[in-house]
Amino acid sequence: MTRAVPPWLAHALRAQRGPVPWSAVTRGALGGGPLLLAAVLAGRPTLGVVAAIGAMFAGINDRPGSRRASVGRIGGPALAGAAGLVVGTYAGDHLPAVLLTLLLTLLGLAAGAVSALGPVGSAVGTQLLVGAAVGAGMPLPEPGWLRASAFLAGAGWLLLLRLALPTPGSLAGNFRFDGERDAVAGVYDAVAALLEATGSETATARRAALTAALDQAQDALAGPRLRPHPSTAAERRLHAQYAAALPLAEAATALAWAGEPVPARASEGPRRLATAVRGAAPTGPLPAPSRTVPALRALDDALLHAAEAFDRADGGGLHARKRSRAARLRTVLGARGREYGTRVALCFGASAGLAQALHHTHWYGQHTHWYWLPATAVFLVKPDLGPLASRVLSRAAGTVLGALLFAGLAAVLPRPEGLVALVAVSGALIPVATRHFAAQTAVVTVLVLALVMAGGEPQASLGRIGETLLACAVVLVAGHLPLPGQRGGDAIRARLTEAGGAAQAYLDHVLGGSGDRRARWALRREAYRTLAEARAAIALASAELPSLSRHADGTDDIAATLELLVDTTTACAVHLDDTGGPDPRHVERLAELADRVRTRGGVAVRLPPGHDRVVC
Question: What is the mean pLDDT of residues 330-347?
Answer without folding.
Answer: 85
